[in-house]
């Protein structure tokens, strides 16, 4: 270490030595700007800080935010605007184009929910590049309020797959390797009230170096699922079923044994020969396709046209199905789904008795 002409400390490479580590981290995390020159002896620590910053959000979230930035940057280039620094007037024009669609966007109009999520993605991207986005600025807030007023629609919810529906769905699956895997996916996803990303993110055992979302521990009375969520770790207990046919634990045991899963991802791709299990983790889109295909094959909601039925089912149907089927106290369902409030759980209960508490009669009418 040497001293510069102005008396500041310098590293071996001649770069100014920052007074504290947070300054280094801030500089490195300013994506899109030239990287700060840092002393050689802290480079490893900087890389560690970068890794931690990457893990502040899930891979799916980061992928979505990257897609948002590409979309916004592409639109700016076509309109002759600069994406940086953020200009509230430009952002207001962009979300107007998103709502209008067609030639103004170069694509179909986006829903209000998608526009709001895209704004969140842009705010995140601007922050990573050292800028702030004031969503309360009138050029953004007023336009967004108008979009909500004109285009907002009631949310579309996916159909809940109930217990009897699920039994019919797993009955459409074969008893080969692929059928065993998919049966275990449907049963553990339903009984655990799991998201599709949580299902495919499971490992067969704990591995602290895994990129997964958690792991399972099979016990005498059931399986304990440990999950990493947005706010930390949580445990989900999945008990054994009343019969082997409907038991998620039995389905898991058969898949693990016949798939020869000793370590790593629990649910994996299977080669075309239907005999060889890959080492790669399944994509979460497989769960959505599986639910849709088996629900249609089982004739769930056969009262509707096929085209309409196809839009009703997704991976979320399993999670909503547990909330709608389990005839137990609401707080237990809330805990299983990992919800912070009972109100959120009620949104998943598609077929609950909404008039169980009758304030009309309670008031004397």
Strand order of the largest sheet: 3-4-5-6
> What percent of residues are in strands?
5-15%
Number of helices: 16
- Tally of DSSP β-strands: 8
SSE order, one letter for each helix or strand: EEHHHHHHHHHEEEEHEEHHHHHH
Overall pLDDT: 81
Look at the helices and sheets and give the structural class.
alpha+beta
Q: Spans with pLDDT under 50 lasting ≥5 residues?
A: 1-25, 27-35
Calculate Rg over CA atoms.
26 Å
Distance between the termini: 84 Å
Helical amount among residues, as a percent range?
40-55%
Shape descriptor: globular
Largest sheet: 4 strands, mixed
Could you explain how this protein is built, in words?
This protein has helices spanning 21-29, 43-54, 59-79, 88-100, 112-128, 138-151, 163-170, 177-192, 196-200, 248-259, 285-297, 306-310, 316-325, 330-337, 342-348, 359-362; strands at residues 2-3, 9-10, 202-203, 214-218, 222-229, 232-239, 268-270, 277-281. The chain is of the alpha+beta class. A 4-stranded mixed β-sheet has the order 3-4-5-6. A two-stranded antiparallel ribbon has the order 1-2. The termini are far apart.
Key features?
365 residues, alpha+beta, 4-stranded mixed sheet, two-stranded antiparallel sheet, 16 helices, globular
Which helices and strands appear, and what pairs or packs with what?
Elements: E1 2-3, E2 9-10, H1 21-29, H2 43-54, H3 59-79, H4 88-100, H5 112-128, H6 138-151, H7 163-170, H8 177-192, H9 196-200, E3 202-203, E4 214-218, E5 222-229, E6 232-239, H10 248-259, E7 268-270, E8 277-281, H11 285-297, H12 306-310, H13 316-325, H14 330-337, H15 342-348, H16 359-362
Parallel strand pairs: 3-4
Antiparallel strand pairs: 1-2, 4-5, 5-6, 7-8
């Amino acid at each position: 270490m040497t001293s510069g002409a102005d008396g500041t400390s310098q590293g071996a490479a001649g770069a100014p030595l920052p007074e504290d580590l947070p300054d280094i981290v801030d500089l490195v995390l300013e994506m899109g700007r030239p990287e700060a020159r840092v002393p050689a002896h802290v480079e490893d620590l900087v890389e560690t800080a970068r890794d931690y910053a990457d893990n502040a959000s899930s891979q799916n979230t980061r992928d979505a935010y990257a897609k948002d930035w590409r979309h916004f940057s592409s639109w700016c280039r076509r309109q002759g605007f600069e994406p940086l620094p953020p200009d509230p007037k430009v952002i207001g024009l962009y979300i107007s184009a998103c709502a209008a669609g067609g030639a103004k966007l170069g694509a179909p109009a986006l829903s209000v929910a998608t526009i709001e999520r895209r704004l969140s993605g842009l705010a995140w991207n601007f922050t990573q590049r050292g800028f702030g986005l004031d969503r309360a600025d009138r050029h953004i807030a007023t336009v967004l309020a108008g979009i909500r007023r004109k285009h907002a629609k009631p949310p579309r919810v996916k159909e809940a797959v109930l217990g009897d529906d699920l039994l019919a769905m797993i009955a459409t699956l074969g008893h080969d390797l692929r059928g065993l895997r998919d049966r275990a996916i449907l049963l553990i996803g339903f009984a655990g009230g799991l998201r599709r990303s949580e299902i495919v993110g499971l490992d067969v055992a704990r591995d602290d170096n895994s990129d997964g979302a958690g792991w399972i521990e099979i016990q005498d009375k059931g399986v304990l699922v440990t999950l990493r969520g947005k706010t930390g770790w949580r445990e989900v207990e999945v008990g054994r079923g009343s019969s082997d046919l409907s038991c998620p634990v039995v389905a898991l045991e058969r898949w693990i044994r016949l798939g020869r899963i000793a370590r790593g991802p629990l649910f994996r791709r299977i080669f075309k020969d239907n005999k060889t299990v890959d080492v790669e983790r399944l994509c979460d889109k497989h769960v959505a396709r599986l639910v849709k295909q088996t629900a249609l094959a089982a004739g769930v909601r056969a009262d509707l046209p096929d085209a309409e039925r196809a839009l009703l089912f997704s991976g979320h149907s399993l999670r909503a199905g547990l909330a709608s089927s389990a005839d137990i106290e609401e707080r237990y369902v809330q805990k299983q789904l990992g919800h912070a409030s009972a109100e959120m759980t009620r949104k998943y209960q598609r077929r609950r008795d909404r008039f169980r508490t009758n304030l009309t009669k309670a008031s004397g009418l």
